[in-house]
Amino acid sequence: MTPPTYFTVEYAINPWMDTSTPVDVELALAQWEHLRHTYRRLGHTVDLVEPVPGLPDMVYAANAGLIINGTAIVARFKHAERHGESVAYAAWMGQHGHDPVATRHVNEGQGDLLVVGSMILAGTGFRTHLHAHAEVGTLTGMPVISLELVDPRFYHLDTALTVLDDTTIAYYPSAFTDDARAQLRRLFPDAIEVASADAYVLGLNAVSDGKHVVYPAQATGFAEQLHRAGFHPIGVDLSELLKGGGSVKCCTLEVFS
User: Which of 57, 178, 181, 247 is the least crowded, having the fewest Cβ atoms under 10 Å away?
Assistant: First the structure.
């Protein structure tokens, strides 16, 4: 995780961002700290990456890359405003025993690359390039399932789909093409399908450890669905960071070993 020390909305690269909306950095830091303490209270280790001035979106650590089974794929961002994040996160990876490798095509890390058991679900349509999916498959040795997104509000896969455990997901069907929905229904017939009201507060931008699901607190319907499915939902308020188009998952780069 990276603290939102320099967080602001000074450009608009997704529909959630409005440069005329002021950002309360102190509130963003407090909300982020609550998320970090929630993870630690649940017994998880949280490593911190130093924020860099001039990189206001660096708080969205999930986009930094994909670290799994000894492979560290560093992000190649679509927008020039975020290119410096790749340098900062690659340096952190190298300093912590990971050998960062790059893809030739745009990939935005765990924003679009979500690990489910022995496979990777990979989003495309707005950020990560379809050709990067094949590169990720080669680098990780894992099957990659391509899923096309169609609604610009759900510009990354992690805004429209949550991995709950090795066999279970939740997702918002309207964010995907017909073909992608058919793939998801074939692979995950028992998936939780989330309503628009919860999707529109980025309720699916959540993190699960297989039992506890840390999710945006405004997604109350999703919380009820999680409870009925046997998970323990834990709501957190990241409303200030939502101004940049991210929430719980966006702020969290998971390391799979």
Answer: 178
Nearest Cα neighbor of 142 from 165, 163, 119, 122 is 119
pLDDT value at position 70? 87
Residue carrying the six token digits 């998801």: 184
Cβ atoms of 209 and 252 within 8 Å: the answer is no
pTM beyond 0.85, yes or no: yes
Q: Which residue has the tokens 């745009």?
A: 106
Active-site amino acid positions: 156, 250
Q: Check: CB of residue 246 under 8 Å from CB of residue 205.
A: yes
Entry field: residues in the chain: 257
Cα Dmax for the chain? 45
Pick from 131, 206, 195: nearest CA to 168? 206
User: Which domains, and CATH codes, for the chain?
Assistant: 25-256 (3.75.10.10)
Q: 181 in helix, strand or coil?
A: helix
Pure H helices in the chain? 25-41, 83-95, 130-140, 178-187, 196-199, 220-228
Please, what is the Cα angle at 32 between 224 and 107, to 5 degrees? 85
**Which of 154, 77, 158 shows the shortest CA–CA distance to 121?**
158
**Ranges of residues in the chain whose predicted pLDDT is under 50:** none
